[in-house]
């Protein structure tokens, strides 16, 4: 074993044993004679020294967005396939940045030069990279969903609290107009007494067209010469390399990704989840799974999530629809849409629009709201009701910063992140429970207090996922 590997493991074990106070990194600056672990000040020229972990595809987009804020210095690049065509753009943008294929080696060699990291990698690798970064006292921007299993997210939330680092999940609409409008309308009493939400994402997915009668995972293929496949696999159960795991195809497989729900749920349901204080559901019921199989996600899914009463707010049912043939019914007054008689009705409802954009409909006791995805705002429907309510709508403030600037400014102690792990964690856990019900194709009853599935022992064990591979166990000991 390499000496730096022994050193890293020893460090991680020591870090996991330390308190949050003793784990405060040296670049945090005391304010008024005391350390503020949740509002650290970055001292290097008012810019955050950042390392980009994952620089191809979505990871590359995140890297460019963070850099374009003008608030960071790029000190390191890390990707398991640094020689691949899809990583070259970012490498060429930052020729002076140190380069690594293994995030563990990067932290071994230059942790003292890094203030923060972005994590734009497959879902199954979010967890170990984030834990490693936090144990070194580094602030973390991690793409949605936070992680692939319920328990991993639980550990990440504990880690953020323990180490006092700034965290942000990458559901960028949470810093745009949708966020500020929902917040203002909720505080003004426009959005109240919500009882049901319909959420939908019916666009084509990568696995549409695959054979659902699959009997095993894809057969092994030669690993590209430039790729570190062992690090790509990380904590997950080992599979030989196959091109259908790489370049975004990981999203299709239960072992690596979170399907449509994990990919789009955080862009559609984030504001409702936060401002309606939904927390975790008590029941998750897969009402419809087309071409269910144990390896990759269904061609279409309808999932019902039940949330209980919360304070003076009534219980809420959220029904999620995905799939090309699974477009939900829309309420009266939704708006004019082209109709396709070839699409069957749903539960005896109206003929559906040929395509329904990703979004949601929110039903309260008095009003119905129509909304989209990401930063798009809500509207009241039908139009007659919207006109009646117009004079009562509060002024909605503009966002002071986009999601990427918000993260970096928070690293400087100038703002607070809008999607920290404390907020994004329970939201991501909702999706973990939904994916678990998809995978098993059965109803789950969940105890919000004990955070256990009470009606299905097998499902309850799967909250933790499969045991990590040998050599990766330390990430689960925080």
Automatic annotation (TrEMBL):
Entry's Gene Ontology molecular function annotations: nucleotide binding
Signal peptide residue numbers: none
SUPFAM superfamilies named among the record's database cross-references: Glyceraldehyde-3-phosphate dehydrogenase-like, C-terminal domain, NAD(P)-binding Rossmann-fold domains
Ranges of residues in domain Gfo/Idh/MocA-like oxidoreductase bacterial type C-terminal: 220-276
InterPro entries membership: Gfo/Idh/MocA-like_OxRdtase_N (IPR000683), Gfo/Idh/MocA_oxidrdct_glycsds (IPR050463), Gfo/Idh/MocA_OxRdtase_bact_C (IPR043906), NAD(P)-bd_dom_sf (IPR036291), TAT_signal (IPR006311)
Domain Gfo/Idh/MocA-like oxidoreductase N-terminal, chain residue ranges per copy: 48-170
Name of this protein: Tat (Twin-arginine translocation) pathway signal sequence
Organism: Parabacteroides distasonis CL09T03C24
